[in-house]
Specification:
The chain is an alpha/beta fold. It has helices at 60-63, 85-89, 97-109, 170-176, 180-186, 205-211, 229-235, 251-254; strands at residues 4-9, 18-21, 27-30, 50-54, 76-78, 132-136, 152-157, 160-164, 191-193, 215-218, 239-241, 244-246, 248-250, 257-262, 272-277. The chain has a single domain (4-277), classed as Ribonuclease Z/Hydroxyacylglutathione hydrolase-like (Metallo-beta-lactamase, Chain A, 4-Layer Sandwich), CATH 3.60.15.10. A seven-stranded mixed beta sheet has the order 5-4-3-2-1-14-15, with no helix packed on it. Strands 6-7-8-9-10-13 form a six-stranded mixed beta sheet. It has a two-stranded antiparallel sheet with strand order 11-12.
């Protein structure tokens, strides 16, 4: 039987919240956005096995659901460790203080190295039913802009590859594009979740050209800054979604976006890739 994973990009408006169900049932969570309606995607995983979580960077729209963290904490947490708790708390508004304090508490708690034989170690794809998981970030950027410390996660299963960005901007992408391991990991992906909510300020033509996605997904809101959706569409190859070829999807227009990907039972195809939307 072919191994298949499912990814949901939740419609949390300006924030980001992504859940991936590996072929063996384990969950990978990327970011804890809730959006303006205070919906909690994390509560939907209350009874599931959250094996791995990535918090791309400590900005409010990516951790707004963090007070629900203890409902079902992950076995392993990945985040940009070079950002100190003191830096994270600097300038935080009083109304947001509890969420950032929770982030710092979690940051202190998950401080032990992951053992090579840990059954949730992402270095071994067998731990996730064959789903390969790679994370990248650079520590060489100016600490005044947390966006440029965002983690980028690459999922690969059955020749299908998905690249998920945080709020990376030009500086971090420039530095990552100097690394052969990063370029090899993202090259020729099928799906790109665009950096920084698809804003023009984060559009990086060389990076997008290297990824060369079939389709780009943008987690955004109608109130976001100038969108680069047209630019991403021009750089994407196209994929049939709900009966028509699409090159760019947005949570603003398409709602929750579900991606089924992995191996195929049909020997004519290298893999399976199917996308549906809630709108």
């Amino acid at each position: 039987m072919a191994r298949v994973a499912t990814m949901t990009v939740w419609d949390v408006q300006l924030g980001l919240a992504i859940h991936v169900k590996a072929p063996n049932g384990k969950y990978i969570v990327i970011d804890l956005g809730t959006g303006t309606y205070n919906t909690s995607p994390l509560r939907k995983r209350m009874w599931d096995n959250i094996a791995y979580m990535v918090i791309t960077h400590p900005h409010l729209d990516h951790i707004s659901d963090i007070l629900n963290f203890d409902i079902n904490p992950p076995k392993i947490l990945c985040r940009p460790r070079v950002l100190s708790n003191e830096e994270v708390m600097k300038g935080v508004r009083y109304c947001d203080k509890a969420k950032f304090e929770k982030y710092c508490e979690i940051n202190d708690h998950y401080n032990s190295p992951v053992a090579d034989d840990d059954e949730n170690n992402t270095d071994n794809a067998d731990n996730y039913g064959g789903l390969e998981i790679q994370t990248f970030y650079t520590s060489a950027c100016d600490h005044t802009n947390f966006n440029n410390f965002s983690m980028i996660t690459v999922f690969t299963l059955g020749w299908v590859k998905i690249v998920v960005c945080g709020d990376n901007e030009e500086d971090s992408l420039d530095k990552l594009m100097m690394r052969d391991d990063f370029k090899n990991a993202v090259r020729g992906a099928d799906v790109l979740v665009a950096p920084h909510h698809g804003r023009e300020s984060a559009y990086h033509p060389k990076f997008v050209s290297l990824v060369s996605p079939m389709i780009t997904i943008i987690s955004d809101t109608a109130k976001s800054d100038a969108s680069a959706a047209d630019e991403y569409s021009k750089m994407s190859r196209g994929l049939e979604v709900c009966g028509r070829v699409r090159k760019c999807l947005t949570t603003r227009n398409d709602g929750n976006i579900t991606i089924t990907f992995g191996e195929s039972d049909n020997p004519k195809y290298r893999g399976t890739l199917h996308i549906s939307t809630s709108k």
